[in-house]
Amino acid sequence: MNESNIVLPARRRFLGTAGKATLSAAAIALLAGNEALAQSMSGTMQDVGILNVALGLEHEAINAYQLGAMSGLLQKQVLDVAVLFQSHHKGHRDALIATIRKLGGTPVAEKPLDDYAKALKADTLKSQTDILELAARLELGATNAYLGVIPAFKDAGLAKIAGRLAADETMHWSILSSAMGKPMPMAALTFGA
Questions:
Q1: Is the pLDDT at 20 greater than 50, yes or no?
Q2: How far is 78 from 132, CA to CA, in rounded Å?
Q3: Lowest mean pLDDT among 21-25, 49-53, 81-85, 151-155
Q4: Are 184 and 174 in contact (CB under 8 A)?
Q5: Using CA atoms, how far apart are residues 147 and 126, in angstroms rounded to an integer?
Q6: Whole-angstrom Cα distance, residue 66 to residue 58?
Q7: I need a labelling partner for 166 at 20 to 30 A (CA). Which of 62, 126, 151, 185 fits?
Q8: Residue 139 contacts residue 172 (beta carbons within 8 Å)
Q9: Has residue 14 got a pLDDT over 90?
Q10: Residue 60 — φ and ψ, nearest 5°?
């Protein structure tokens, strides 16, 4: 299985589910005869939906790094980087939660660690390299997802935040790939395609 087959479904899932939260609130406003409210709610609720899917990705990353840290397979120096990257994802999570609440939405809840362990197939992680490869796949998937949704935001400020998050994810992917001795992309415009 090549890397694009692993990353693209997560990106498609992110892009495909991001707008689904808009229907009920906007539809209710339309049914109530308030088209202006429906239009403003539709844009805001779409942004909240996108942000909640992004929050789900951050919850997954935090827990993936937790699983890696708890595995006992990481050398001290690699563990330190994993903990640092996890702290970045916690910062992303906190910023997303605050923004979702500011927009009047309800942040998606984090699942139990065991759910992430099953979804990420943590039982198959047998070496430091396995953990680094998983982390790199998740970081690349998040990079592409954030870049892919930038045009969907109704609020340009949120699009900028998504760009900043994509930059962090790209940095993480680059460092992880380098640590595994993988070559950097040779083509321009590698990310977000």
A1: no
A2: 9
A3: 21-25
A4: yes
A5: 32
A6: 12
A7: 126
A8: yes
A9: no
A10: -60, -45
The answer to whether 22 and 42 have CB atoms below 8 angstroms apart is yes
Higher per-residue pLDDT: 148 or 35: 148
Query: Which stretches within the chain are classed as H helix?
Result: 3-17, 22-31, 35-70, 76-102, 113-119, 128-149, 156-179
Q: Where are the domains of the chain?
A: 3-179
CATH 1.20.1260.10 fits 3-179, yes or no: yes
Residue keyed to tokens 């990257």? 85
Weakest-pLDDT range from 10-14, 43-47, 61-65: 10-14
Place of tokens 């790094």: 65
Q: Two tokens at 131?
A: 């953990």
Distance CA 185, CA 162 (A): 22
Residue type, 127: S
Q: What global pTM score does this model have? A: 0.78
CA atoms of 169 and 141, how far apart (whole Å): 9
CB under 8 Å to 182, separation ≥6 — which residues?
A: 136
